[in-house]
Design a protein that fits this description.
177 residues; single chain; alpha/beta; Rossmann fold; 32% helix; 4-stranded antiparallel sheet; globular; 7 helices
């Protein structure tokens, strides 16, 4: 099994950068350190990189341009690097992070090096079905960032429906984006 993991990993990164793996009901995640970044790979693509100042910084800047006064933010999908960058801003009161693989939210922190873990009290991991979580937070967020991969399976398809976007809209406060 280790050989299979190395083959998957080396399609993107050198074998010596692979540190380990963990499994959820939805997927297997491979992780390691490469050029000072902690990287997690799922299904042949990078799903997390910490720190990720470049890409995460761009997403944060584009999102905040649409609502510069945002204080309460929800990030759905791969986005620990994005949460990390947003937490650098003093205006942010709370950031909630949900993932389409709710076990990932619960497990990933065990494998991130201590120096890269998010320990800020404003950061909240939301474990559970994203749709159910949205139903509990009506008119709460100023900004919702969907950082999802393409809809390549039935698990992801449910996040690309009118019903889901309606649910997201209902979580937004007045002038929320």
């Amino acid at each position: 099994m280790r050989y299979v993991r190395i083959v998957k990993w080396t399609k993107l990164l050198p074998a010596d950068a692979l540190t380990g793996s963990f499994q959820t009901a939805q997927a297997e995640y491979l992780y390691g350190i490469y050029h000072g970044q902690w990287i997690a790979i799922r299904e042949g693509s990078v799903c997390e990189a910490l720190p990720d100042e470049s890409t995460a910084g761009q997403i944060a800047a584009i999102s905040l341009c649409q609502n510069p006064d945002a204080k309460r933010v929800l990030v759905i999908g791969s986005g620990l690097g994005l949460c990390y960058e947003l937490l650098r801003l003093p205006q942010i009161e709370t950031i909630s992070w949900a993932h389409c693989d709710n076990e990932y939210v619960q497990e990933v922190n065990k494998f991130i090096p201590p120096r890269l873990k998010i320990t800020d009290k404003r950061f909240h991991r939301l474990a559970g079905d994203v749709r159910s979580l949205l139903a509990k937070k009506r008119q709460y967020y100023d900004l919702v960032i969907l950082n999802l991969p393409d809809a390549t399976n039935s698990v992801l398809n449910r996040y690309y429906t009118r019903q889901f976007y309606r649910q997201v809209k209902e979580t937004l406060r007045t002038n929320g984006v």
